[in-house]
């Protein structure tokens, strides 16, 4: 069995496909799920999962958001004018309670082949 190396969650302010992909990879690795197992559980190809995590920007938005949701990555929008305030609030939360930044929580556990959840 392949060992999954945990990657840290990136800055919470997603600026592009690369930072979104980093958040997806961090959630998957924090859950200890291989790329292959995640792709299978999500009914997408390994190539699509790899493209998403690699920040290619070619994965359909609906697919990307579904993968994020299933891995427990929350996405939200805010007006650009509030970007600075939102970034500061998220950074404050990250410092005061780092536990959620280590991976998915809140019952959003991806069910993979052989899981008992």
Fourth CATH level, the homologous superfamily: lambda repressor-like DNA-binding domains
Instruction: Supply the number of structural domains.
Output: 1
The helicity comes to: 40-55%
Poorly predicted spans: 103-108
* Rg value: 14 Å
* Major beta-sheet overview: none
- In total, the number of strands is 0
Describe the protein's architecture and organization.
The protein has 117 residues and is mainly alpha-helical. It has one domain (17-99): 434 Repressor (Amino-terminal Domain), CATH 1.10.260.40. Helix content is 45%, strand content 0%. The protein has helices spanning 17-30, 35-41, 46-53, 61-70, 83-96. Helix 2 packs across helix 3 (46-53). The radius of gyration is 14 Å and the shape is globular. The two termini are 20 Å apart.
Topology:
Elements: H1 17-30, H2 35-41, H3 46-53, H4 61-70, H5 83-96
